[in-house]
Amino acid sequence: MAPRVLAPGDPVVFVDRRRRSYYAELAPGGTTNARGKLLAHDDAIGATDGSIVRSPGRVAFHVFLATYSEHVLNMKRHAQIVYPKDAALIALWADLHPGATVVEGGFGSGALTMAILRAIGGGGRLTTYELHAEPAGRAFKNVAALLGETPNHTVRIADIYAGIEEREVDRVILDVPEPWEVIPHAIGALRSGGLLAAYVPTALQVHRLALALTYSRWFPAVDSYESIVRPWHVTARSVRPEQRIIGHTGFVVVGRKAARELVWVPGSRSEAPDPPADVVEPDESNG
Ligand SMILES: C[S@@+](CC[C@H](N)C(=O)[O-])C[C@H]1O[C@@H](n2cnc3c(N)ncnc32)[C@H](O)[C@@H]1O
């Protein structure tokens, strides 16, 4: 692939000799202040990704097109984003793939949306449900800065707890406060074998969601994950974990929809406390 030439609107990072990086969205006539060194965006616009630009004092910086992670961690955001380490977990464990049709709950600042769009590619289709129109405007800008036009992405300003219009979708991906409210609609929207994945910040939500999926009788196997990423500091004289890392962010719960409603509840009685009154206890003769 030919090297990319940087253009107005591109998210970039300017990297100094000490590997410190400074994020910017390139604007004609714009500047970035890198610890007192003013970097002119006009010097970067038209340059090849990875080129050197210099401050007025001739200090050199490399300018790179921002990666997904650099963009997401630096873009303007109004809601708690899904961090790249968790978006990576969702993309792989929810088995997002080129061409997949996906319904997402919660646009927020668009961080997870961008990971989904990247994974499904131009041949996939994403519909995002979001309650609030105004913040969605900011999220659209964030998505456009990284991905440009995304005609395969539709945003519905609608309450996903009230219903999902789409049918036979491959994946339902949720980052809303009460994802268990979406389960009946996800069952209607997902194709047989389709996956539901939800990001939740607390262990109590993991417990509630995993049990709600199980007791819905449509998800025979529900898995829960946490991702801990520990960056390392590596120089000629020192190799050690970084002193500061991102501690807790959230958990990912994943379930796969069966072809038909189960007549048993997966797991033993001891693993599944307090079943709802109408739940049929395990019947070994079924499946
Ligand atoms: C934590 S933010 C999502 C962050 C987003 N995943 C990201 O990575 O940038 C949760 C979003 O869900 C939206 N939301 C909350 N309840 C909703 C509902 N019932 N239907 C649709 N969207 C909802 C909120 O308005 C908010 O934008």
Topology of this structure?
Layout: E1 11-15, E2 21-25, E3 31-34, E4 37-40, H1 41-44, E5 51-54, E6 60-65, H2 68-74, H3 84-93, E7 101-105, H4 111-120, E8 125-130, H5 133-147, E9 153-157, E10 169-174, H6 183-189, E11 190-200, H7 203-215, E12 222-226, E13 232-234, E14 239-241, E15 251-256
Parallel strand pairs: 7-8, 7-10, 8-9, 10-11
Antiparallel strand pairs: 1-2, 1-6, 3-4, 5-6, 11-15, 12-15, 13-14
Helix pairs in contact: 3-4, 4-5
Bound molecules: S-adenosylmethionine (SAM).
Residues 79-82, 105-112, 129-132, 135, 159-161, 175-177 line the site of S-adenosylmethionine.
Cα gyration radius (Å): 22 Å
How many beta-strand elements? Answer: 15
Largest sheet: 7 strands, mixed
CATH architecture of the largest domain: 3-Layer(aba) Sandwich
Helix content: 10-25%
What's the helix-strand series?
EEEEHEEHHEHEHEEHEHEEEE
CATH class of the largest domain: Alpha Beta
- Any ligands, ions or cofactors bound here, and which? S-adenosylmethionine
Which parts are unreliable, with pLDDT below 50 for 5 consecutive residues or more?
282-287
Overall pLDDT, averaged? 93
By CATH, the topology of the largest domain is Rossmann fold
N- and C-termini, Cα separation? 50 Å
Number of helical regions: 7
Say which CATH homologous superfamily of the largest domain is assigned: Vaccinia Virus protein VP39
How would you describe what is shown here?
This protein is of the alpha/beta class. The protein has 2 domains: 11-66, Vcp-like ATPase, Chain A, domain 2 (Roll); 71-256, 3-Layer(aba) Sandwich (Rossmann fold), CATH 3.40.50. It contains 7 helices and 15 strands. Strands 9-8-7-10-11-15-12 form a 7-stranded mixed sheet, with helices on both faces. A 4-stranded antiparallel sheet has the order 2-1-6-5, with helices on one face. The chain has a two-stranded antiparallel sheet with strand order 3-4. Strand 1 (11-15) and strand 2 form a beta hairpin. Helix 3 packs parallel to helix 4 and helix 4 packs across helix 5 (133-147). It is elongated and about 75 Å long. The model is unreliable at 282-287 (pLDDT under 50). The protein binds S-adenosylmethionine (SAM).
